[in-house]
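Annual report, structural modelling task.

Input specification for the pyridoxal-5'-phosphate complex:
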Amino acid sequence: MKFSSFPRVRLATLPTPLQYLPNLTKALGGPKIWVKRDDLTGLAFGGNKARKLDYIIGDVLEKGADVIVTGAGFQSNWCTQTVAAAKKAGLDIYLVKSAPFEDFDTEDWDGNHLLHHLMGAHVKTVHPDKFKDTIKAIMEKLKDEGRNPYYTPVGGSEPIGAGGYFNAVLELTYQANNEGVHFDYLVHATGSGGTQAGLVMGTKAFNTGMKVVGAAVGWGEVSEMKDKVKGIVEESKKRYDLDFNLTEDDLIVYNQYAGDGYGVMSDAKLKAVKLMAETEGIMIDPVYTATAMACLIDLARKGEFKETDNVVFLHTGGAVALFPYKEPLRAHLEGEPLPWKTPEWSPQ
Ligand SMILES: Cc1ncc(COP(=O)(O)O)c(C=O)c1O
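The model returned the following structure:
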């Protein structure tokens, strides 16, 4: 089946801007740095999930579902954009969020968690051990009530969602051509793997020659992350009838920029947030995009990119998480030791 014949609802504001970053380029003193502003996709506060949700909501509506069930971490950006997409499409939505203990829900209304409630999602917080069973129980209960629930996994990272980033490569290539630039590298944050899978599929299928670099945000080994991405690419090849050979060289993942783990603040992440803010006035989030920017900064400073290279940073959104992280940010700005490293709601 042709890619364009899969159902799609136009929820994301596209194309997102492609911008040259002269001040960051100067600060890093190496390759030319650009940003692809997927933080401006709309749907609540924007982010990478909007592109995936165009196709996921298309599938939901085609299947005649009336309620979405999904889950993720307590401060999930995925949940925020999925609730916004569901509401725009007139659908009901249940979120299961992992948290340190049952009923953590009432503890800390900030950032994304506040938004989930504001948009009227049904929110259930559970200990990570009960995450899968709770989703199953909600699905069963909804079916018993005569409803038609649709389950979508964390991050929408399966072939349907990955289609959004397959398509994004076409958009970026078109914009790059208009700017008369060729991108040698794209650097982005990789978590559940759908974004990287879509990008890799696009670069392979359209033979763009752009290397897709994923900065893992902190779950497990590099090999696990690569396997996750590879699995989604291989499944997607069947769905979209794509013909290319995925090689080891196509999967580039670094995991050292996550520091001590997912959501755990490090100097490098905080410096990345500050550098982007003070050179370009662009807010990145302390968890995902800070990890990716810390990666880009380090690779640039180590001379991993050539001076003539063009590197595009994919801004995948999430800046509302700056606010739940206000304490370590303040401490960093005032030159104090970090007051705490791991938020209570972090999945670590
Ligand atoms: C802001 C942000 N950037 C990047 C990612 C990673 O995207 P993916 O889960 O598709 O790997 C996420 C995932 O939640 C995110 O919220």
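The radius of gyration is 19 Å.
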